[in-house]
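Try this one yourself first.
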């Protein structure tokens, strides 16, 4: 996500600069804001601005930077003129795509004491956009935050700031900017803006705010899948299950895969009984086919819910349907763990009929289950088989039987 946001961020900054947010000199208006300049200095500034307007960017960048260097350490008027030359050099470099160099020159210009506050504030915003465009996202976001706090900001810059903070994964800061956007009454957010806002709120755990932004997109399955996926990435499987269930109840997530995913999320999120109940209901009414994969998921859900009867019934149904020795093995292990001795024996018997191999441990478990059912002859036979397979504990059981 981060790389996508960064690419979009750069495109957005380039569009803003192309629209004229990075001034192309503005010498006529700027020179009157600071100390009075000498006529020859004014003439040089106008000459460079005219040259810039004709597209001679490289020459202006070089000339303006050289002029600024010569004026370093001069009087107040010289320092003011130096700041204006730096602005011209920054404009020329920005037009050539040298965004990082242009940003550095604007930063140096606005550090001049003689620069009026309004001009310094404008250059701060322009530097922020240049740094974002140059890929200096953290510096750009910091400069843009400063500009917003000092100027009050506008919707365009706030969206840019949200995007920058999101690309840095500074979700709380991004959410704060979003809150101010919503408080300003801004409406008509684009689909990409809604998606960005939803992502930011989900990353900060504000899922209700994220869902409130869905609007007309509430019927789009992809929106709900994205929302649940982000919650899952944040490690909140329970919230992911709740979001997916909301999408299901609204009729947006009703495909077979959607239903199975809802069940899996409930299992992962700590509500396996709900998953099992849903799966059983969908199987009963035909929304899901009684395939081995679906029956296995149902059995796993009842097992996670620790509903002994339902779990054993589900595993038996699966094993009968699949005919796999592995499924009978799972039923036997589960039944043994819960003290269901007859079910344990039945499962091991079915396992052998299905062509499965009984391990030494399997024979040991069968022997113990048989002891519990008070069939000592059958138990001795099972323990002897376990001993022959190398299970040392089997001899202890044989000794106990005499």
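Now uncover the answer:
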């Amino acid at each position: 996500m981060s790389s996508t946001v960064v690419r979009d961020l750069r495109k957005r900054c380039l569009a803003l600069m192309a629209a004229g947010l990075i001034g192309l000199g503005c010498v006529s208006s700027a020179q009157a804001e600071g100390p009075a300049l000498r006529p020859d200095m004014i003439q040089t500034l106008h000459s460079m601005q005219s040259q810039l307007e004709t597209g001679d960017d490289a020459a202006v960048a070089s000339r303006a930077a050289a002029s600024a260097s010569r004026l370093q350490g001069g009087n107040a008027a010289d320092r003011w003129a130096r700041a204006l030359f730096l602005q011209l050099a920054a404009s020329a470099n920005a037009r050539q795509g040298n965004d990082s160099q242009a940003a550095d020159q604007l930063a140096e210009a606005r550090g001049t004491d003689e620069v009026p506050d309004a001009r310094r504030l404008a250059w701060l915003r322009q530097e922020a956009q240049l740094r974002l465009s140059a890929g200096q996202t953290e510096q750009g976001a910091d400069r843009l935050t400063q500009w917003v706090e000092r100027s009050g900001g506008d919707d365009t810059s706030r969206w840019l700031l949200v995007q920058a903070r999101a690309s840095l994964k500074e979700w709380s800061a991004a959410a704060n900017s979003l809150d101010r956007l919503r408080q300003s009454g801004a409406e008509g957010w684009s689909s990409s803006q809604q998606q960005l806002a939803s992502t930011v709120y989900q990353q900060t755990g504000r899922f209700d705010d994220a869902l409130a932004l869905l609007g007309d997109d509430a019927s789009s399955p992809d929106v709900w899948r994205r929302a649940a996926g982000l919650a899952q990435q944040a490690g909140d499987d329970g919230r992911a299950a709740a979001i997916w269930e909301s999408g299901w109840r609204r009729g947006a997530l009703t495909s077979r895969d959607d239903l199975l995913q809802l069940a899996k999320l409930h299992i992962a999120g700590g509500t396996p009984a709900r998953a099992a109940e849903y799966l059983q209901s969908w199987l009963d009414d035909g929304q899901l086919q009684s395939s081995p994969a679906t029956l296995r998921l149902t059995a796993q859900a009842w097992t996670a819910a620790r509903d002994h009867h339902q779990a054993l019934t589900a595993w038996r149904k699966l094993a009968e349907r699949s005919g796999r020795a592995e499924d009978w093995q799972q039923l036997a292990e589960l039944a043994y763990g819960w003290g269901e001795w007859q079910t344990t024996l039945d499962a091991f018997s079915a396992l052998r009929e299905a062509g499965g191999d009984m391990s030494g441990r399997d024979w040991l478990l069968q022997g113990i289950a048989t002891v519990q059912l008070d069939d000592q002859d059958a138990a001795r036979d099972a323990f002897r088989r376990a001993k022959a397979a190398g299970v040392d504990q089997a001899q202890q059981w044989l000794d106990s039987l005499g």
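Discussion: Residues 1-135 form one domain. Residues 2-21 form the longest helix (20 residues).
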